[in-house]
């Protein structure tokens, strides 16, 4: 019950990593506010967890006014804000010449500006309460490049460095800000790959653990970073990728040699 009597806001909280985080924080005693644009899914989360300690609030993280209202309603209605998990995000698939300007802007607005808006609205509330914790969902795609993910790479890379900047600005106010950098996670965001024969197995083959992460595994790291167990972790970008970025990218020579013999 690390989060008993704590108030947690999770953006993108109705599915995937956000839903797993809502379940995790709630199971450890928190009052959880789910922010999303999928009203039906949000209502289902409240039904599952119970309305006593779970609230759904529709909010578009690319809108400053909606994010500000979300944080203010949370603070006014629940007596404060202790943890913010800036998790909402989208992707796009295109190299620069083929990337529509509107798609670029949408990815940046949601994946990067949404994180900034969340922090901007939450930090004064946390400061008034004497501290808090913010976790931003970045990605290993913010630490290196991917083929044809130009907008996503740019946004997530910016989230990593923005996290560092915000963290050092507010550490002495008792507000710890960190990022979690998942590798491939089995969520609705990448569910479409299952329709393409062989793509998932080929992708999983690149991961040393041999599989995608479960959303619960990312949620566990977010909960750790939000807890007092991580009291001296500030400005970190924690990689949770099954060993993917530990690999140089060179081929698996033992396997190739065994196949050649």
Mean pLDDT across the residues is 96
CATH fold topology: Rossmann fold
Which bin fits the share of residues in helices? 40-55%
Overall form? globular
Secondary-structure arrangement, i.e. CATH architecture = 3-Layer(aba) Sandwich
What portion of residues belong to β-strands? 5-15%
Q: Domains counted in the coordinates: how many?
A: 1
Q: Summarize the helix and strand pattern as letters.
A: EHEHEHEHEHEHHEH
Give the count of helical stretches: 8
Name of the top-level CATH class: Alpha Beta
The N- and C-terminal alpha carbons lie at a distance of 55 Å
Note poorly predicted spans. none
Order the strands across the largest sheet as they lie in space.
3-2-1-4-5-6-7
Q: What gyration radius follows from the Cα positions, in whole Å?
A: 19 Å
Architecture overview:
The chain has 8 helices and 7 strands, in the order βαβαβαβαβαβααβα. The chain has 261 residues and is α/β, with parallel strands linked by helices. The protein has one domain: NAD(P)-binding Rossmann-like Domain (Rossmann fold, 3-Layer(aba) Sandwich). Strands 3-2-1-4-5-6-7 form a 7-stranded parallel beta sheet, with helices on both faces. α1 packs across α7 and α3 runs parallel beside α4. The N and C termini lie far apart (55 Å). The relative contact order is 0.14.
Question: What order do the helices and strands come in, and which of them pair?
Answer:
Blueprint: E1 7-11, H1 16-27, E2 31-36, H2 39-49, E3 54-58, H3 64-78, E4 83-86, H4 101-129, E5 132-137, H5 150-170, E6 175-182, H6 199-205, H7 215-226, E7 237-240, H8 253-260
Parallel strand pairs: 1-2, 1-4, 2-3, 4-5, 5-6, 6-7
């Amino acid at each position: 019950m690390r989060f008993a009597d704590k108030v947690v806001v999770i953006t993108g909280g109705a599915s995937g990593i956000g839903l797993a985080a809502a379940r995790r924080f709630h199971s450890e005693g928190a009052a959880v506010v789910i922010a999303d644009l999928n009203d039906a899914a949000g209502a289902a989360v409240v039904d599952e967890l119970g309305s006593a300690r779970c609230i759904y609030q529709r909010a578009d993280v690319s809108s400053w006014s909606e994010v500000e209202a979300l944080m203010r309603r949370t603070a006014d209605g629940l007596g404060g804000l202790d943890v913010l998990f800036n998790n909402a995000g989208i992707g796009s698939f295109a190299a620069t010449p083929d990337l529509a300007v509107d798609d670029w802007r949408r990815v940046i607005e949601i994946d990067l500006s949404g994180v900034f808006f969340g922090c901007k609205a939450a930090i004064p509330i946390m400061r008034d309460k004497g501290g808090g914790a913010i976790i931003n969902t970045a990605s290993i795609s913010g630490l290196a490049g991917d083929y044809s993910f130009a907008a996503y790479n740019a946004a997530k890379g910016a989230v990593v460095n923005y996290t560092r900047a915000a963290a050092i600005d507010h550490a002495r106010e008792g507000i710890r800000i960190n990022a979690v950098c998942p590798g491939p996670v089995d969520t609705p965001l990448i569910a479409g790959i299952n329709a393409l024969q062989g793509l998932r197995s080929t992708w999983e083959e690149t991961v040393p653990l041999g599989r995608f992460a479960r959303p619960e595994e990312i949620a566990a790291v977010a909960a750790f970073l939000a807890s007092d167990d991580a009291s001296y972790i500030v400005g970190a970008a924690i990689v949770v990728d099954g060993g993917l970025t530990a690999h140089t990218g060179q081929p698996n020579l033992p396997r190739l040699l065994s196949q050649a013999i």
